[in-house]
Each structure stands twice: as C-alpha cells, then as structure tokens.
From TrEMBL:
Phylogenetic placement of the source organism: Bacteria, Bacillati, Actinomycetota, Actinomycetes, Streptosporangiales
Coiled coil: none
Hydrolase recorded as keyword: no
Signal peptide interval: none
Positions of transmembrane segments: 242-265, 277-294, 300-318, 330-352, 358-381, 388-410, 422-442, 449-466, 486-511, 663-683, 695-712, 724-744, 756-777, 798-819
Ubl conjugation in keyword set: no
Protein name: Uncharacterized protein
Keyword vocabulary terms for this entry: Membrane, Transmembrane, Transmembrane helix
Length: 837
C-alpha cells in the first residue's frame, strides 16, 4: 500500500510540476495590413506644400432609380420589389497643373486597382450612402485629360441601395484622410433626381435649386438626408395598439403549451421525479436570459445550461430507470482512450505554442502515466487476476495523461490564451449528457449506441465539422471571432445550446409517438392525438421578427398563422363522422375482411350491370322477365348475406400498428416531396439546429402524411382516395395560409401570385394523391390481393386521380422553370443566416 500511494503521489506531482512550470502563451499577432501603401499620400508629402492650394477638387453626386441593367450583378432573390432600388453615381474630378508630382504618380497607377479606394478617400473623402447594399461598390478606372497647362483626373464610383418606400436616403461626405492635405477645399454638387433635400448639416449652399444643390466644403464632414418625392409624411401617425402578429403569437403559444401538457398525460404528472424535473427546468429557464440583461453575469447562464441542467437530467434518468447503467471496465477504457486522444491535441498545442518545452512535456507525461499505472498495479496485485490488473493499469495511465492535458488547458484558460474551440468542445460534451439521459428515459434502458449518437449530435449542435476543423480553431484564441447569426440572433454557445434543447424536445415528442403507437389503442388515445398536433404546430412555427426587451433587440418567434391552421385542419381531419369499423387484429383477419369487401363490391357492380344490360335485352326479347327477376333475386339474396362485410374494410389500419403505418406514409410523402426541393432550394445552416430548422419545408407535408397513416381509421372518408382528398384539403389550406399576407400584397403582380399558388397546389396534390394511391396498393398488398381488383388501369375513370396529380406536377415544373426573383423570394423567404467563420 505504501508503494501504491507513493507512486500515486509521484504521478500527481509530475502533473502539478508541469502545470506550475507552464508559461503563459503569447497572444495571436495582429495581422498586418495587406493593402498597398497609398501612392498619392507619399507623393503629396514630397510635393511643394503650396501645390495643394493650386489643385481643385469637385464631386458630383447623381441619385437615380436603379434599372434592370444596373441590377444584373445583384444576387438572385435579394431584390425586394416592394422597396426602392436606388443607384447613386459619384463622379470625382481633380484638376492639377501638368507638372504636379501627383500626375506622374497617377499615370504609373501604383497599386491600381487595389488602391483606387484609398486614392479617392485620401483626396475627396469617402461618400457613404445609407441603407442596405444590394451589391458591392464599384469603381471605374480613372480617366485623365490634359492640355498644355492642366491635367484633370476623373474617378467614378457607383453604389446600389435598397430602401423602404418611406425611408430617407442619407448621404455622408467624410473629410479627406490624407495628411498633409492633398487639396484644401472641395466643391460638391448633388443632383437628387426623384428625391428632395430634406435636411443638411454643416454647410451653406452656394447654389440651391430644385434639381441641384452646390456647396463648398473644407476638411470637415458633411451630411444630408433626401426624401422621396412620391411619399408624403402624415401630420399624425396613428399607432396601432393591436397587433395581429402578437395576438396570433400569444394564441399559438397558449395552444402549443396546452397540447404539450396534454401530450404528457395525467399519469406522467403523477410521478414525483417528473414533477421535480419540471420544477428544476422552470428554475433554470429564467437564468438563461441573463446574457440579455447583464453580459458580465453570462458565466452563470453557461454553468446552469452546461453543468446544472445535464446533472439534473442524469439524476432524473437515474431515478426513472429501473437499472443502473451497464458500464464496465471496457467502456471506461474506451472513454478514457478517447479522452487521451483529445488530451494529446491539447498537449500538442502546449508544445507548439511554447506553453511547456517539448522535453519537459514528454518527461512529465511519461512519469505521470508510468507512475499511475504502477500505482494501479500495486493496489490490485493482491487480486491475482491478470486481466483486471492490466485493465486498471491502462485505465490509470490514460487518466493521468488526460488529467495532465486538463491541467494545462485550465492553466491556459487562466492566462487568457487558449485554443478557441476548446471551450466549445467542453461545453458540447457537457451538454451531451442531456440527450443521453433523455434517450435513456424514452427507451427505458441505457444504450452505448445512444451515448455515441448523443455526443455526435451535441458536437453538431455547436457547429459543423468544417467549423470545428477550421485552421484557426485550434491555434490561438481570436480576440473577436466572427460568430454566425440567424437574423439578429447571435449563435454563441449558449444560444446554440438552447436551440439544441428545443430540437431535443421535438425529438422527444416523436419518440413519444413511437412508444404510444405500438398498439391499435393509440388511434383513439387523446394523448397521442395531442402529441401529433403539437408536432405539427412546431413544424409550422415561423420566426417573423423581433421585439425590444430592456432596450435589447430580442428575436422572438412571432408564431405564424400556419401553426394555428395546422391545429385546426388536423382537428378537422380527426373529428369527422366515425364509421363502425371492425379492426383486424392480424394480417389474416385483414385478408378475410378485404376478400369479403371485394365480394360485396363485385355483387354491387353485378347488380348495376344487370340493370344496365337488362333494359336492352328485355326490349329485344333476348331475356324474359322471369329470368331477369330470378337473377335480380339471386343478387339481392347474396347482398343480404354479405352485407355484414361492407367496404369499410378499406378504412381500417390493416392489422398494422399506428406507428408502422405512420412511418410508411411519412416515407412515401417525403419521397414525393423531394423533387420540389429544386423549387425551394436545398436547406442550409451553420449547425445541426439551424439546418434542421431550415429543412422544415421538406417534412411539413410528410408530417401530414404521418398523421394520415398514424390515425388512418379516424381520417374523414371511407376509402384511401376519399381520405386522401380530405387530407389534400387540410394540407392545402395549411400550406397556402403561410403565403396569405403575400398573396394580398398589392405590389406583387397577379402572375407571380398565380405561380406561387400553382407551385403550392401542385406539390400538395402530388403528395396527397400519390399517398392515397400508395395506400390503396398497400391495403391490397397486405391482403395478398392484386391492386387491379380495385383500380383498373384500363379505365379512364380509374385513372382520373393519378392523371390529375401528373398534370399538376407538370404544371408545377413549368411554373418553377418560369419563376422569377419575386416568386423565389416569396417561396424561399429572406436569407438571414450568415456564413460560418
């Protein structure tokens, strides 16, 4: 025991020595400017100081509407036809003596075109135009004109802006940034065109006309604002105290909360651990808002989300599961081995950046690992079991290396210079405990595969592999990294963690449907119905803006009307007239019911055929009345005998559990929806959560298909195709409700609106009618009967439904190929996700 404790102290001492001997790492060197030096500033410094008084600088600003030719370089979908597209053309002219040193410098074009901006800003000062830019600022090559005594240089700059109809256009003329000054005075002329100068600051005009404003200015800034001629400002702005967006948002939030509570069921609330979990999460939720109000207290929110909530989830899982996790020594070896791999990355960083010399690092690591392994051997040698001794030795050595890497990481953290993504890695591993516990509770068992998937998912929640493997992610800390955003929502680790929790909650709802859908009782289970409606409402939630909370612009999901319509249409589908059904318990019972229904259908068709041909044959004398009555009585007797087997057999679950039916319907609907991805574009995102959120349009209609399959016996209708038509009405109303505000927009043309409606209708009809046809085939396939017995492909009437679907799909394809920027913007929405760093 003395030897064992002594070796343990040696291992710990090696780790402590390495940590104490580690030096602070120098911060990253600031990148040197790659821009070429301004040639005119150097030339002006060499010129005669009196030459600046002889130069004359003029600037002319022309404001016009941007034409189609001007907007060609603008990325597709960025132009909003409901706003103004403005073109601002700035023409600078500098008049100099022919022997001026700047003329020769300009002719050499040192650094052009890279230094064009520097030249114009140094001589004339930068011209800034307010409003979002449609395209980068462009600069033409300078034009020189000379005579016997003077030379004039002309610089042309073009800027494109997009403004709201009532917005003002601001022009800011900055002071020249050259020292010494290249020119002592400037003359500026503004031609507003369809705009009117509303206010000016810092100048007295030399010439003031309706279509031209001229003024002289020195080395100081000037600003002005222009108002559109076609817009009048009201004397009194009537504030609308009632907001439909807010009202719908509150109503949707209340409805969603109600369905979420109902989806848990009364039995869930009766368990004490569940109530404790709800209380713990309710106490933790307000703390996550701390970064919005007090930046200095943000670490508290990080501790709660990445430490307290994972521990709460693990405690809840430990109390809910009947058995402890089945982890053994082999599992510990694998986990610590992975920890060693991560630790080697940190040790490599420590060596590369001089935190600790290589020899000292290797010596300290080897001593710590060997001493820890020897200590483990000394502790376990009395057991006499060689495999156990070897495993404990390996486990101790791995733990020592991992502890050394952790100690050096903490030292780098205290010194303020550390691998940038190392903190995100630690936070992701801590957050991974939440899905591990959630999946364990949902499946009622601990699984190694679930742990691996949860860790991988948590890493993807914090960023894509391209972001994790960025060249600068594991070098030196970046003082101000470019953090991706969604709109105005900055995706820092805590925001990504909260969004990941929301995504996890949605996954838990789907897993709950899986657990409830194992038996036919789920079809009439109100808990399953509430869960399904909650899933639909979540899929149709759309962020619509932001609100101001404590002087902070906070993005909020102003819940779209589509979520409410999805709720209403789902209820409409599930609350229709109920048929008296005989649900088959097995596939054999389903086969017998289908055969009986086919027999009944055959008798009905035979009776109709008897009346159809009997009229002609009776009149021609080919059939006697006695024979006709005999055939009729025989058919009626057969119908009375088989009347207890109506065709409602096609409205049953076919002996399959609801979850299996739902998965089949979802898969078919998804396959039918995938071709329409060319209309909406492929989903994008900077991490797993934003990618899943952006791909909702691919699963909203398949979610209706899942509802169709899961609750198939309750869907309105008696046959697969009639049920599919009711599903079409519900899905079409829900999908079109998302474009309601756009379709009533007067600034959008009727052709664009018709294209949008055609694309949505085509997609819904294609998915729903295709699902109905598949379901008809599936019912017959499960019964072992050919599909041709219910749908004759040689009959025009039988082909009406698929023909309609194909025609609409072809029309949708044509509309897609003809869709312009307006239609693309309506269908895809504004692109608000920035690229990752």
């Amino acid at each position: 025991m003395a030897i064992a404790f002594g070796l343990a102290l040696v291992s710990l001492g090696a780790i402590v020595w390495c940590t104490v001997a580690a030096r602070p790492v120098a911060g990253p060197a600031r990148p040197e400017s790659s821009a070429a030096p301004n040639p005119w500033v150097a030339a002006a410094a060499r010129a005669d100081p009196l030459a600046a008084w002889a130069r004359r600088a003029t600037t002319e600003v022309l404001v016009t509407s941007a034409g189609s030719g001007d907007l060609e370089p603008v990325p597709e979908g960025r132009i909003d036809p409901r706003q103004r597209q403005v073109k601002v053309t700035v023409v600078h002219r500098l008049r100099m003596d022919t022997d001026d040193t700047l003329v020769e410098s300009l002719r050499r074009g040192s650094g052009f075109p890279g230094t064009l901006r520097q030249v114009t800003d140094a001589v004339f000062g930068a011209v800034r135009v307010g409003g979002p830019g449609l395209a980068p600022t462009t600069r033409l090559a300078p034009v020189l004109t000379s005579d016997s005594s003077t030379t004039t240089a002309k610089f042309t700059v073009t800027l494109l802006r997009q403004l709201e109809m009532e917005s003002l256009l601001t022009l800011d003329f900055a002071r020249p940034n050259a020292f010494p000054l290249i020119v002592t005075s400037r003359s500026i002329a503004v031609r507003p065109g369809e705009w009117t100068v509303l206010r000016i600051e810092g100048i007295t005009p030399d010439r003031e006309e309706e279509d031209r404003l001229e003024f002289g200015v020195g080395a100081y800034p000037v600003s002005m604002a222009l108002a559109p001629d076609s817009f009048g400002f009201p004397d009194v702005v009537v504030a609308d105290d009632f907001s439909w967006a807010t009202a719908l948002g509150v109503l949707t939030a209340v409805g969603l909360v109600v369905f979420l509570l109902r989806s848990l069921g009364q039995g869930w609330w009766q368990r004490l651990p569940n109530r404790e979990l709800v209380v713990g999460l309710a106490l933790a939720a307000p703390a996550l808002l701390i970064p919005l109000f007090a930046k200095d207290w943000s670490p508290v929110a990080y501790v709660i989300l990445f430490v307290a909530v994972p521990l709460l989830a693990l405690r809840h899982a430990g109390r809910m599961l009947p058995t402890s996790p089945p982890w053994d020594t082999r599992d510990l070896l694998v986990v610590t081995g992975l920890g060693v791999l991560v630790g080697l990355g940190m040790l490599s960083w420590s060596w590369l950046h001089g935190q600790l010399p290589g020899q000292a690092l290797v010596a300290g690591g080897v001593v710590a690992a060997v001493a820890a392994a020897g200590s483990a051997v000394a502790f376990s040698v009395d057991l006499g079991v060689r495999p156990v001794i070897v495993r404990l030795a390996a486990l101790s050595a791995e733990a020592a290396v991992g502890l050394l890497a952790l100690a050096l990481w903490l030292r780098a953290l205290l010194d303020g210079v550390y691998p940038p993504d190392s903190i995100r890695l630690v936070l992701a591993l801590g957050w991974a405990m939440i899905p591990v516990a959630a999946v364990a509770v949902a499946t009622k068992q601990w699984r190694r595969g679930a742990v691996a998937v949860a860790v991988l998912a948590s890493l993807l929640v914090q960023g894509w592999p391209t972001e994790w493997l960025d060249a600068g992610s594991w070098s030196l800390d970046v003082p101000q990294p470019d953090v991706p955003t969604i709109g105005s929502l900055v995706l820092d680790p805590i925001v990504r963690g909260v969004l990941g929790l929301l995504l996890l909650g949605f996954v838990m709802l789907v897993l709950r449907l899986r657990r409830l859908g194992g038996g036919p009782a789920a079809i009439d289970n109100p808990v399953a119905e509430s869960t399904m409606i909650a899933v639909l409402m979540v899929l149709y939630i759309t962020p619509g803006g932001s609100t101001t909370l404590a002087d902070i612009d906070v993005p909020l999901p102003l819940l779209a009307i589509t979520s409410l319509v999805a709720w209403a249409t789902a209820r409409w589908l599930l609350t229709g007239p109920r048929l008296v059904l005989t649900e088959p318990a097995t596939q054999e019972e389903h086969r017998l019911l289908i055969r009986a229904a086919l027999h009944t259908r055959l008798l009905h068709v035979s009776e109709q055929e008897l009346y159809r041909i009997g009229r002609g044959r009776l009149g021609a004398g080919e059939l006697s009345m006695a024979d006709f009555d005999r055939h009729r009585h025989a058919l009626e007797t057969a119908l009375r005998e088989h009347g207890r087997h109506p065709e409602t057999a096609f409205a049953t679950a076919a002996g399959c559990p609801p979850w299996l039916n739902g998965v089949h319907a979802f898969t078919v609907s998804l396959l039918l929806s995938l071709p329409f991805a060319i209309v909406y574009g492929l989903p994008e995102g900077v991490d797993l959560t934003s990618f899943v959120f952006d791909s909702r349009y691919l699963v909203t209609l398949p979610a209706f298909g899942f509802l169709f399959g899961y609750f198939y016996p309750r869907i309105r209708g008696t046959q697969p195709m009639t049920k599919a038509l009711h599903l079409t009405a519900a899905a079409l109303l829900t999908e079109l409700s998302g474009y309601l505000s756009t379709l009533v927009e007067p600034d959008i043309g009727a052709v664009d609106k018709a294209q949008v409606v055609g694309i949505v209708v085509g997609q819904v009809m294609m998915v729903c009618i295709g699902l109905g046809l598949f379901w008809e085939w599936r019912i017959m396939h499960l019964a072992g009967e050919p599909w041709a017995r219910v749908r004759n492909l040689r009959s025009i009437r039988s082909l009406a439904a698929p023909t309609l679907a194909l025609v609409l799909a072809a029309g949708t394809t044509a509309a897609t190929s003809a869709a312009g920027q307006t239609v693309d913007r309506i269908l895809k929405g504004d692109q608000v996700t920035s690229a990752p760093r």
